[in-house]
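Comment thread on ticket #2218

A.B. wrote:
> Attaching the input chain for the structure job we discussed in standup.
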Amino acid sequence: MTRLVLCAGSTRTAAIEGITAAGADPEVLGHTPSADAEVLVYGRPVRAPVVPVSPSGCPTPAVVTRAVVERLGLATTVVDAGLAEPTGAPTVSVGASPGGDVRERDPVPCAPGAVAAARQFGRRLPDDELLLAETIPGGTTTAMGVLAALGEADVLGVDDGLVGGDGHGTGDASATRDGEIGQDERRIPRGAVSSSMRENPLGLKRRVVAEALEASALQPGGAAREPTVALRRVGDPVLAVLVGLAAGALETDTAVTLAGGTQQVAVAACLRHAGHEGPLSLATTSFLADDPAIDLSRAADALDLSLTVTDPGFTDDHPATARFLVGEGKEGVGMGGALALAERTGLPMREVRAGVRDLYDELLGTDDETPGRTGGRPDADRPDADRPDADPEASR
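C.D. wrote:
> Ran it. Output below, let me know if you need it in another format.
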């Protein structure tokens, strides 16, 4: 049997201005993962006071995953990987707590315990295959931090040089804790991560990672072969739980598919640095794979991953699918893994698309009961926009 396990959590890194679309609204930010879990389990929010649809109309990727779950009867489990707000979805606890700002010295003190508890849980799950999914605002920035700490900053792309102020060229501006701008001569590997926003704020993310490494007294590569150190000092609780779950499952010969993008590459890097050499799959969407900021094939080769990219055939004749075509959303909540499973089992993509449209219409029909929308799924693998046409990010 195949089971989708969603790890839902939070990090205060997401509150850094410009990192995520929802960063300006702390209340929305905290409820996004909780709402995603409810959409996955129930098809709509039942306790979270937000509807996870961006201002431009792009739905959370959870809608796509839910459409597949409904049609395949796929078993699901939600793990509380550091939720900041309660969720109406049933959850499994592994002792994770919300993550702090990575620019603090010890932002994820729960990481060692969460990895250990999640590993035990992963070992005991009776399934033949696990699809591991995530939802966490700010997650692509913390993923960049973990990759840098492991010495894998360039695994998704190479761009060496001075940390840039605008994310595109070489610049000399550096973001400080209080938002002031100053000269900064620190050099870090100019790694890349994805974003659900059209304009990926890579410059800001790199500066945040540089500050995080400095706060933790880590050099790039300083936590090589010590993934728990990287997770604790510059990561987030969701990454810690995902690493533990995957490790436990691999130890019992359970097939593991990392369902996602940038964050799941960080999980894979942690597993390889921990000495796990067995088969490992990465399943993502064509939207994420087409992100020009990253090179997924490069990462798959470097980390010995079996890469699956699935195109759901979305069209622009319905808002549920149209915004994905212009670069919003991209990935998250196991969307790529769910689509890959649908294709593998012969579920027609036209049925998936119909389900996405139906769920979207139902979500918008609950606005009178569920006040407010997210300002975009924050930075995970959908980290983008504080503009009117911005993308839902998450992630990460």
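A.B. wrote:
> Thanks. Noting for the ticket: The chain has 13 helices and eleven strands.
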